[in-house]
Amino acid sequence: MFEQTKTITVEGVVKEFQWTNPHSWLLVDVTDKNGKVTTWGFEAEGPSTLQRAGIRPSEFKAGTRVTMTGRPMKDGRPAAIWVLAVRGDGKKFDPREGFQVK
Fold first, then answer.
1. Which among 29, 27, 24 is positioned nearest to 11, based on CA atoms?
2. Is the peptide bond before 95 cis (omega within 30 degrees of 0)?
3. Lower CB count within 10 Å: N or C terminus of the chain?
4. pLDDT tens digits, residue range 11-47?
């Protein structure tokens, strides 16, 4: 479903953070150079894994500026696996860190 060797990076504004099991989704409104807005969905792990990675819904409130990197859908729809999020203040969030045993 997702490309395993390609990544995309988009900049936008958080629309919604769907904090759900088994997978969470960060929805980001991306505006192109012509002013058209496309909502991109970034799939991540469930809440317990995201919490271990230091990611909570309060980190991505609606309106938060964010640059998202992900592995895009093979069929070209505006969705990807969440690889890295960088908020407008520079703070980075990698959901895979929730799998690390410390």
1. 29
2. no
3. C
4. 999 999 999 999 999 999 999 999 999 999 999 999 9
Residue 90 lies in a domain: no
Domain that holds residue 70: 8-85
Domains in the chain: how many in total? 1
pTM above 0.90, yes or no: yes
Pairing assessment for the beta strands 92-93 and 79-87 based on DSSP bridges: antiparallel
CATH number of the domain encompassing residue 35? 2.40.50
Where do we find the tokens 């192109």? 32
Summarised one tens digit per residue, pLDDT across range 40-71 is 999 999 999 999 999 999 999 999 999 999 99
Cα dist from 93 to 32, 74, 75, whole Å: 24, 24, 26
Q: Does any domain span residue 29?
A: yes
**DSSP codes joined into one string, 35-49:** S-EEEEEEEE--HHH
